[in-house]
Amino acid sequence: MTEWKRTYYCGKLRPEDVGVTVCLNGWVHRWRNHGGVLFIDLRDSTGLVQVVFHPENNKDLFEQAETLRNENVIAVRGRLEKRPAETVNPNLPTGEVEVIAQELVILNKAKTPPLQIDDRITVDEALRLRYRYLDLRRPEMQKYLAVRHRVAKLTRDFLDQKGFLEIETPMLTRSTPEGARDFLAPSRLSPGKFYALPQSPQLFKQVLMVAGVDKYFQIARCFRDEDLRADRQPEFTQIDLEMAFVDREEIFALMEELVQVLFKELTGFESVRPFPRLSYHEAVRRFGTDKPDTRFAMELTDFSDLVKETEFSIFRQVVAGGGSVIGITAPGCGNYSRRELDELPRLAADFGARGLVYFALTGEGIKSPVAKFFTPGQLTAICERAQAREGDLIMMVADETEKAREILGGLRLEFGRRLQLIPEGRHDFLWVIDFPLFELNKETRRIESMHNPFAAPLPEDRAFLESEPLRVRGDAYDLVLDGVELGSGSIRMHQRELQEKVFAILGISPEEAREKFGFLLNAFDYGAPPHGGIALGMDRLVTILTGAESMRDVIAFPKTAAGACLLTGAPAEVEPAQLQELSLVSLADRDLIVVKKRKNET
Ligand code: ASP
C-alpha cells in the first residue's frame, strides 16, 4: 500500500457508507480465525469495526494478516460492506457493517500486553497505572478523557461569556495557606530558600482583584502535601474563580448556572434552581456532617434531655459533663438477628464510637441490653422522639456533642447505603453556608481558620471577633452534591485592619504577617474592592459526571495513595551533584552520599 493514511475512522462507519473504499488506521483489538476466514476487530479512538480477510481473495494478504497479534498497529484498505444478517452485532455501533480487506500495512508490532484492553476485565490497579498508556486505550478511559475535556471546554465557554478572564498564576511561589503542608522546590539561585507550589491560587486571585480585574478564572493545578485518602490526590485541579464587587448571592447564582449546564450537557440531569441552603450548624445538627447527603432523611435526633435523668448512668454522666446522647432510627432493622445486633457496636467503633446503645422495636416489645434502666414511660418517650415504629431500630451514641454527631453522621450514611434509601438517578445540590470562621485545634489548642485565613467574618458577628472568636461565623460556603464537597469559597476581607485582626486571632504576629503576606496587606492599602470567589474540585466533578469508580480514573496520570507515579517512578532519588547545586548538601555530605550509592550499586 503506497498511501496508508486513514480516510475514515473505525467507530464511525455506518450502513450508509456501504460501497466506499476506506483506509483505516488503528490497533488490532481482537482476531479470530474462523475456518479459514480471519476476522479482526480494528480499534481507533472512535471505536471498533470488523475487518475480514478471505484467503480466496488474496492469499499473500491472508498470510500476512495471519501474523497479526493483539495491539499490532496497522493500516487496512478495503471495501465497506453490509454484514450478512446472521452476523450483525447489535451491541456495536458499527455492528451492521464490515470491511473486506484488500491491502494491509503493519505499522508497528506489539508485545503481548500485560493487561487486556477491555472494559469488562478487572485488572490490578497498580498494573494499570504502570502501563497507563495501555490502560488509557480502553474505551471507558477514552470516554473519561473526553468528558474531562468537555468539562473544561464548557466551563471556559460559560465563564468567557460571563465576562471572565482566564489568567495563569505562578506555580513557583510562596506558601498559600489552605490548611495543608506545602510541596517545596529549592531555589538554586538563592541558596537555602524555597519556592512553595501553590495550595491554591488564592493570594494571586485576590491581588488580581486589587489589580482591577473584575472577573478572574483559572483551571488551576493545586498542590497539597497531605496524607492521601481514597479521594485525594497530591496535585489536583480546581475550577477557580474570583469576582470584584460581589456578594455571595451573585456567586451562588453563577455557580448554579454553571453546574446546571455541565450536568445537563454531560448527563442529561436537570437540576432545580435555586439550590437549597443549610447553615453549617443546622447541617451538623441534623446530619452529623457539614456535607450532608440530603437524598434520604434518617436525620439525627437529640435525646439528651430525655435520658439525662434515667437510671442508665453512662447517659446521665455524658449529659452532665456537657455531652449529648444522639441517635438515628433505621427503618425496618428492628428485626435484626442477635448476631446482627451484636455487630452494631463494632460497626459504630469503625466511626469512632466507644459504645453504642440500641433499642429494637420488635413485635414482642423493645429489645435492648439496657432496657431495664428505663421506665416504660421513658421508653415510650424515646420512641416518640425517634418517630420509631414497630420494626425500626434506634441507635444511640453518648459522647461529646461534636463527636457523637460525627459518629452518627457516619452511621447514617452506612445505613442509608445498606437500606438502599438513596433513590436511583437523584442528585441533590446544596449550599452549606455560614461556616464558623475559626475552629479550635484540639491537639495544639490553637485557633485555626476553618476555611482559609482570608474569608470575611459575617458583618453581624464582627463584634465578637476578639471576645468570642469561636462564635464568629464567616461568609464562607461550600457547594455539596450528594454528600460530596464539590467546592468551597468565601467573601474575603478587603480591608487591611480587619485582615490583620484575623491574623492576630490566628496567632500570626504582625512581623510574621508582614513577612508572609505583606504583599497582600500592602495591596489592600491601595484601594482593594470588595471581592469573593469559589473553587470547584474538577477531578471530583468529573468523577461524578462520568460515574467513574475512582478519582484516579479521570486523571490521565494519577498518583497512588502513597503519592507515587507508577508510570514514571516519581518521586525518585536525584544525583548528589544536583543536591549540592541546590545547596541541600555540603560537599562532605555529597561525597558521603556518592560513596553510599556506589556501595548499594555493587
Ligand atoms: N482557595 C479556596 C480553596 O482552595 C477556594 C476559594 O475560597 O475560592 O479552597
Explain the overall architecture.
34% of the residues are buried. Helix 4 packs antiparallel against helix 6 (248-267), helix 4 crosses helix 15 and helix 13 (496-505) runs antiparallel to helix 14 (510-524). The model has no long low-confidence stretch (mean pLDDT 95). The strands form five sheets. This protein has an eight-stranded mixed sheet, with helices on both faces. It has a five-stranded mixed β-barrel with strand order 1-2-3-5-4. It has a five-stranded antiparallel sheet with strand order 12-13-16-14-15, with helices on both faces. With 602 residues, the protein is an alpha+beta fold. The protein has helices spanning 59-66, 125-130, 132-135, 139-161, 202-210, 248-267, 280-287, 304-307, 313-320, 338-350, 376-386, 401-418, 496-505, 510-524, 538-546, 576-581, 587-601; strands at 21-34, 37-44, 47-53, 73-82, 97-108, 165-166, 184-186, 194-196, 215-223, 235-244, 277-279, 301-302, 324-330, 357-362, 365-367, 393-399, 429-433, 438-441, 446-449, 476-481, 484-491, 531-537. A hairpin with a 7-residue loop joins strand 7 and strand 8 (194-196). It has four domains: 10-108, Nucleic acid-binding proteins (OB fold (Dihydrolipoamide Acetyltransferase, E2P)); 143-279 and 430-554, Bira Bifunctional Protein, Domain 2 (BirA Bifunctional Protein, domain 2), CATH 3.30.930; 296-421, Gyrase A, domain 2 (2-Layer Sandwich); 572-602. The radius of gyration is 31 Å and the shape is globular.
